# Entry
Amino acid sequence: MYLLERSKIAIIIPAYNESNTIGKVVKDLNKIGRVIVIDDASQDKTSMIAKKSGALVIRNKFNLGYDNSINIGYEEVKKKKFEIFITCDGDGQFNFNDIRKMIKLYSPQYGVLIGNRNKIIRFSEKIFSFYAKKKFGIIDPLCGLKCYNLRFCKGKSFDRYNSIGTDLMLRIVKRNVNFINFNLKVKKRKDEPRFGNSIISNLRIIRSILLYIFFYEKKN
# Structure
């Protein structure tokens, strides 16, 4: 088993109005790595609670969205001497033990480790999953919990086209870099989903699929 020092692990959490959960999430993840919270212009106390809980907090002046927030965290991570970075949601859906399991599964040969949730509700996510599994072997491309080996992260940005956290993952996998899917269980959200109601979220996911297939497929 490959052992990673805490100082080699960064954890990027894009957060918007997560004051009810962000404190516990940060305190747990501080045990395994350096937590960077990108507060996407929250209207509650997300920044204050995250900072008090031990995270490095970067607050957006305006709401930039999920992918742009991770882009900001990605730029911060590249300045430091981390070996890996993890993307994780701030809503407390992911079990801490699953995150620890993911780190234990990591090996330098892997470009990315991709979470596979035990439950996928949205129809559009199932479509994306079907496509990604058939083409690349990726079971759950839209899972918010992923681990990236910075050695394989080419390009200036984490995301280029609002891909809902899939652009960098697909760029790595398309280069035939080793990756693994790992199973995890998610908890039910107590608040509203980040991507809005079912119609809006399904449209965003379908848009991401189409942009990749019809535009970026031939360019990368």
